[in-house]
Design goal:
Strand content: 5-15%
Distance between the termini: 73 Å
Order of helices and strands: HHHEHEHEHHEHEHEHEHHHHHHHHHHH
Radius of gyration: 32 Å
């Protein structure tokens, strides 16, 4: 109406005038119906959260709902188990908030806290709050603003040093998604804002189970193995060069030509090495059946200082054996040291790769065979580097075999003994 339009365009007391006009219009009305948008949980949320909790992942629910609604959702989604008592921290008193928070210490309970009390805790005893909150199985923060959600994610990273993943489906979750190490956006009825701002977009919350337990496991294991093997591959040829220079009284003489060095990093070993990303130690079904296996990944044992130095030790040992044993066995054929050591090096790397594989993929088999054929063909092509007459002799064959076995067999034997005495959890189950 003209009155409402006039009130909205007023420069003085606009809100009051609009309120008065609306009150004059909305009276003596009969209620016919009420419409609303149903905000219900997606399918399989409860089993997904239950499996993630069994995997040792702590879950915080940050929502804008009121405390009663948030508590009901936490129960229905199995975020809070029936045997876990709920301690609600809703107060405006600092002392009372500190007392309720202290009750949660050393208790197997769930914390439900509203936005105002949460801000009160963050302003007065931030560190103590997170020290206690990260120890309980689950935390529910209701009536949270988008800024508070992002702040909580940052503070969890600060006080725990752990990786965080934030998942949301609305525009008010964007700041939280961007603050996390990994942002996950759900495509839902609330729009595409969260999905567009996230690192990974999902259509169903239940897909999170497969994403973390299976794809996350493969990504971590594969990246760790690939990174360390690439380091080993570069280090072993460098140590061979260092030993060769030492034999020649530390003269800067390259043992391998530039063509061989490029071939070593590319056509001879690249495809087999990068095929390691296709390796997997267990099947997807087992990761879903035994989510506790994920706790092994959280310990970071696949990629640590210990594993790094193990690979460095392997490189030093194998390079020393290949170079020194070749010099000893082929003392009278020292002029062919390039062909001897390089052949042993290629064979050792392909054998190292084969031992690291848990489940063979067709691509891995093809990569190993093609690399071996490519090197064998290049021996006959690069006549200036390789002496074909010497390579085709029985002496070359059995001595290179001894060098390769001496460089690889002790390492494989040690790994087999270790796996037999202390097998990994995945092997025990599978």
């Amino acid at each position: 109406s003209s009155k409402l339009k006039e009130a909205r365009s007023s420069l003085v007391a606009r809100d009051e005038k609009v309120k008065n006009v609306v009150s004059s219009i909305e009276h003596n009305l009969e209620l016919l119906a009420i419409s609303g948008v149903e905000d219900k949980l997606q399918r399989d949320i409860a089993p997904t959260l239950e499996i993630l909790l069994q995997a040792g992942i702590q879950i915080w629910m940050l929502t804008g709902d009121k405390i009663e609604t948030a508590t009901c959702i936490a129960h229905s989604s199995k975020l809070v188990k029936k045997e876990h008592p709920i301690i609600q921290i809703v107060t405006s008193s600092i002392d009372e908030a500190a007392k309720k928070l202290e009750r949660c210490r050393q208790k197997n309970c769930a914390i439900v806290i509203d936005g105002a009390t949460l801000q009160l805790c963050l302003d007065n005893f931030e560190e103590e709050f997170f020290q206690i909150a990260v120890q309980v199985p689950s935390v529910v923060c209701c009536r949270c603003s988008p800024t508070q959600k992002a702040d909580i994610v940052r503070l969890i990273k600060k006080y725990t040093g752990k990786r965080t993943a934030a998942i949301g489906d609305g525009g008010n979750d964007v700041s939280m998604i961007q603050a996390a190490d990994i942002g996950l956006g759900l495509v839902g009825k609330e729009g595409m804002q969260a999905s567009l701002a996230a690192d990974i977009s999902l259509t169903q919350f239940s897909h999170l189970r497969q994403l973390i337990l299976w794809h996350g496991r493969r990504a971590y294991k594969g990246s760790a193995k690939l990174g360390q093997f690439v380091t080993h591959r570069g280090l072993i040829i460098s140590i061979i060069q260092a030993i060769f220079c030492a034999v020649y009284y530390f003269n800067a003489i390259p043992i391998y030509s530039g063509l061989l060095q490029v071939g070593y990093s590319t056509v001879y070993t690249m495809v087999p090495v990068f095929s390691l990303v296709l390796d997997c130690d267990i099947s997807p079904e087992i990761t879903q059946r035994y989510p506790e296996l994920y706790t092994d990944l959280q310990k970071g044992r696949a990629l640590s200082y210990k594993t790094f130095f193990i690979w460095v030790t392997k490189s030093v040992y194998q390079a020393s054996v290949i170079m020194l044993l070749s010099i000893y066995l082929f003392e009278r054929a020292f002029i062919n040291i390039v062909a001897i050591t390089f052949t042993s090096l290629i064979l050792s790397e392909l054998l190292n790769l084969a031992v690291e594989i848990n489940q063979w993929h067709p691509v891995m088999i093809v990569a190993e065979i093609v690399s071996l054929i490519t090197y064998s063909a290049s021996v006959f092509i690069l006549r200036s580097t390789f002496d074909i007459g010497f390579i085709l002799t029985w002496q070359f064959f059995w001595k290179v075999t001894i060098v390769t076995l001496c460089s690889c067999l002790p390492i494989y034997l040690g790994k087999w003994i270790r796996n037999e005495c202390d097998p990994p959890s995945s092997r025990k189950i599978s």
